[in-house]
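assembly run, all chains below
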Amino acid sequence: MARFAADVPTRGGFSFDLCQRNEMLLKKGNQLPTFRKTGTTIVGLVFEDGVILGADTRATEGPIVADKNCEKIHYMAPNIYCCGAGTAADTEAVTDMVSSQLQLHRYATGRESRVITALTLLKSHLFSYQGHVSAALVLGGVDITGPHLHTVYPHGSTDTLPFATMGSGSLAAMAIFESKFREGLTRDEGIKLVSEAICSGIFNDLGSGSNVDVCVITRGQTEYLRNHQLPNPRTYVSSRGYNFLKGHTEVLSTKITPLKSSKVEAAAEVDEMEE
Amino acid sequence: MSIFEYNGSAVVAMVGKNCFAIASDRRLGVNLQTIATDFQRIFKIHDKLYIGLSGLATDVQTLYQRLVFRHKLYQLREERDMKPQTFASLVSAVLYEKRFGPYFCMPVIAGLGEDDVPFICTMDCIGAKELAKDFVVSGTASESLYGACESMYKPNMEPEELFETISQALLSSVDRDCLSGWGGHVLLVTPTEVQERTLKSRMD
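ok done. output:
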């Protein structure tokens, strides 16, 4: 009976019940599947009015591109955004979780969230899982104390920097930053530099590709420029395309089920509830 | 040999004009031996929401039962069906819960959302969602399916053309994969009806 109770939605956190079975499968010679990673180039820099974050948009599964236009800049708070590299499920889950915790904290304190709050929540979660939650993050935002930019590593260590890059394309992007960054960049100069750094990752790193996403955070305003640059348009489109005529495919059996119109039923339900 | 290649599978979903299609192969194997040619991989959650599960067959069935259970609880509490986006978040959470001992399943979710706008998404085995606007693929034949769908897909296809396209993409891809095939099963859902068809294919 205790096992049956475990099927009811749990209170949260990880569940390890399949680990024993998976270990047994591994010993029998079956390899674990590869998880979707975000190969990635993610960058951030501090400019005169705030913080600019940038990311590419390719998600890989081994050598195959699983998603050509994924979103790697995650929302944490209205004034804080976080770019994620590493295992895609981990970056999404950890940023979603900390975003919810920040919202609850905002309700409790009645104040705007601070970047170091998000930083502490992220690093303590990642450290407690000793690096097994594989999320490498660039966290940036502007709060009452000013603009902040931090990097968080999977094991839980953090750095506070004026410009940062993470992911497989970090070296390509850092090369651009190291040669062209200076303090007090204007908004347009900052966006241009971030785009250049991401493009450098896109074109030189195989794990990064597709488009450039940029997020500009300043005091009181955040602009998420999704697909700010599209340097890789599809060039092999056939104008004719494939035309499969009806009846082309051999079908063994067909079953057609009409669906009830849902709008009529909804009207009937409203009447009942009014009683 | 990866655990994913133990049973073999191929699932694909495509978006058309106010409709979607989800298709899968029908083989169930144990390594290189085929033991069934009528294995169901696409399951109905409610009239306008379907989930296709590829990967280890036992996990496919267990995960389907868990998800139907959660959806029925939701229906009892909310007195309505789940929206596809909500269901995708639910599946992602159920899979991520098992992050360090995962289900060996890669789901493909396809449904008609509010105002009958088609929604498709896929995930890896620990719940990393990929929302696509055109097509999603999963299974041992996924690499061939990516190629076939990339070239055959056109946006805003009518239901008849969508059916032909997804069938041809599936059949040509599984022909290049030893572990999947042995028949095809296609479901085409429009706001007014559901068309379920089995395809004739090579049985090798």
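Chain A has a mean pLDDT of 88.

Chain A touches chain B through 57 residues (CB under 8 Å).

not gonna interpret more than that til we talk
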